[in-house]
Amino acid sequence: MAYTPIEIIAWILIIITAVKLLTISTNPDSWRRFTKTIYGNPRYSRLFSLTFAFIILYYLLQELTIVQILATSLFVTMLILYGFLSMGSELLKISDILYKKHGNKILRKYWLYTLIWVVLLIYGAMELLNIKIPF
User: Fold this and answer.
1) Tens digits of per-residue pLDDT, 84-96?
2) 70 and 131 housed in the same domain
3) Cα angle 54-42-12, degrees, rounded to a multiple of 5
């Protein structure tokens, strides 16, 4: 059976999640070592994740609108928030450290991440307002 790019993306998520859950349930230390490798190499991990984010966005935009993608992003954000709320005090400590370290320069520190979201949000707003995108 031939799968569409979006179906392949869904399969990737399903397989990675299944492997993660199986690994955590049988050998949580091995998953911890794996995540240490990812977070221990932020330059390569960020390049990898950003590259694949744009590839996935490209394929999503072949079948969905930016508005549908943003609405789905809000849904996923709410699920992630639900999970993170169980460790709220730990996350607040990390947040305090981050804001003490970077203060009012936080957006400059994360300028590329912020720029990507601003572009996506403007793109979505333009579509909702029926403003033609010049490209």
Assistant:
1) 999 999 999 999 9
2) yes
3) 45
